[in-house]
């Protein structure tokens, strides 16, 4: 089980430190659950100094696929490593939709992330229009195949997949546990095809999209749901801690 908080473009220096401090104390010892928070780039360094020595890991929300050079405004994988990141979210639907990220670009980022010992949290998910047209399986399968083309994943710990139906992100509308499980099973099959049955089974597949303390336990109880990528509810330490607790009960 893995629960990761995606803070998105929220929190300034002071409030990020406060939130990280509260998360460390509210989550306490998460037992078998792996926990991470992903603050904005500018707050990674200060958040790491709060998390250091706690079981909570640091993640970034994005990265560039080159290591250094003339890419004004961008941040690279070794820079993220240097400030203590363990994870990096790649291909979030907001990046795909608002910043034009493609599966091919996501694939390049995954390669670079792994080269620098970061664990990419690779996001996939269909829009409402695609689901209404009955194309959700085709869309998500293509995202998984193309994003992960040629990627390695020795023992299941070198990458994470997050299924986030776009229509459930920030809308208060969660996919039903059955809808989540159905898509997670399809993603699992693709991971098994690519990496073999043991590694495919051991790779975390997170669900994301309006996960709240009240909905987490039932989602996490599904066999192929290995935790959550939490947006809104990760900005409140007590709610985030309750979601971690729900994962712990299933783990
Ligand atoms: P949400 O965001 O929990 O606010 O829906 C999830 C995400 O976008 O990762």
Q: What is the rounded distance between the termini?
A: 6 Å
Helix coverage percent: 40-55%
Named CATH topology of the domain at 63-233: TIM Barrel
Task: Please identify the structural class as seen in this structure.
Answer: alpha/beta
Superfamily (CATH H level) name of the domain at 63-233: Aldolase class I
Ligand kinds: 2-phosphoglycolic acid
Task: Please provide a written account of the structure.
There is one protein chain. This protein is an alpha/beta fold and 251 residues long. It has a domain at 63-233: Alpha-Beta Barrel (TIM Barrel), CATH 3.20.20. It has helices at residues 13-27, 44-51, 77-82, 93-98, 103-115, 128-132, 136-147, 177-195, 197-202, 213-220, 237-250; strands spanning 2-6, 34-38, 56-60, 85-90, 119-124, 160-163, 205-208, 227-230. Helix 7 packs parallel to helix 8. The radius of gyration is 17 Å and the shape is globular. The protein binds 2-phosphoglycolic acid. Residues 6, 164, 169-170, 208-211, 229-233 line the site of 2-phosphoglycolic acid.
Briefly say what this structure is.
With 251 residues, this protein is α/β, with parallel strands linked by helices.
Structure keywords:
single chain; alpha/beta; TIM Barrel; eight-stranded parallel barrel; 11 helices; globular; binds 2-phosphoglycolic acid
Any chance you could write out the topology, listing elements then pairs?
Blueprint: E1 2-6, H1 13-27, E2 34-38, H2 44-51, E3 56-60, H3 77-82, E4 85-90, H4 93-98, H5 103-115, E5 119-124, H6 128-132, H7 136-147, E6 160-163, H8 177-195, H9 197-202, E7 205-208, H10 213-220, E8 227-230, H11 237-250
Parallel strand pairs: 1-2, 1-8, 2-3, 3-4, 4-5, 5-6, 6-7, 7-8
